[in-house]
Amino acid sequence: MRVLGVDPGLTRCGVGVVDGSVGRPLTMVHVGVVRTPAELDVARRLVQLEQGLDAAIAEHRPDVVAVERVFSQNNVSTVMGTAQASAIAMVCAARRGIPVHLHTPSEVKAAVTGSGRADKAQVTAMVTRLLRLDTAPKPADAADALALAICHVWRGGAGDRLAAAVAKSRATGGAVRVVR
Questions:
Q1: Of 3, 39, 61, 156, whose CB has the highest number of CB atoms within 10 Å?
Q2: Within a domain: residue 178?
């Protein structure tokens, strides 16, 4: 599975592409940041962001796009920019028929480090280790995008297989039995 992770931001939007599957080594395909100048008006910044994300999707052809779910913060302008960037990522993927999955920051941290309360340094260290990189991806937005992709490979892949099994069972008239 190839996953394009997006750490949404209006000034710096992290983009990371990872190949992998549950139980197999992960491979980093690409990491980068789409930047937009703060002096531009928001509409033009969103267009630049859309162009950068669309180019990444066209080049790397992911099976899935994983985007960080926007969560409430005290700073409304930061939340707005993050939400707008997140929407652009979702539109770029949807336009090409690519499934989009949202993951919360704590879900990503827990998947990558084992703790939903991990700090950025711990996430970056584990991303570097899991992908067997010589140097840590920088800036933190790039590392966070890779962490999102890793999270989806490990957690989203299982959810996708379960959803496919349920859909297949319903299509064939079979009963779905969940064993706990």
A1: 3
A2: no
What is the C-alpha separation between 177 and 102, in angstroms, rounded? 26
Give Dmax (Cα) for the chain.
Answer: 58
- The HSE-up count of residue 54 (CA atoms within 13 Å, CB side) is 13
Contact 34, 16 (CB under 8 A): no
pTM, whole model, 2 decimals?
0.87
Report DSSP state, residue 38.
T
Q: Among 6-10, 75-79, 86-90, which is the least confidently predicted range?
A: 75-79
Query: Which residues are designated catalytic?
Result: 7, 68, 141
Rounded to 5 degrees, φ, ψ at 143 are: -65, -40
List the CATH number of the domain containing 74: 3.30.420.10
Write the pLDDT tens digit of every residue in 15-60. Answer: 999 999 998 999 999 999 999 999 999 999 999 999 999 999 999 9
Domain extent for 50: 2-171
CB 11 within 8 A of CB 35: yes
Indicate the angle between helix axes 105-113 and 120-130, nearest 10 degrees. 50
Which two tokens mark 180?
């706990």
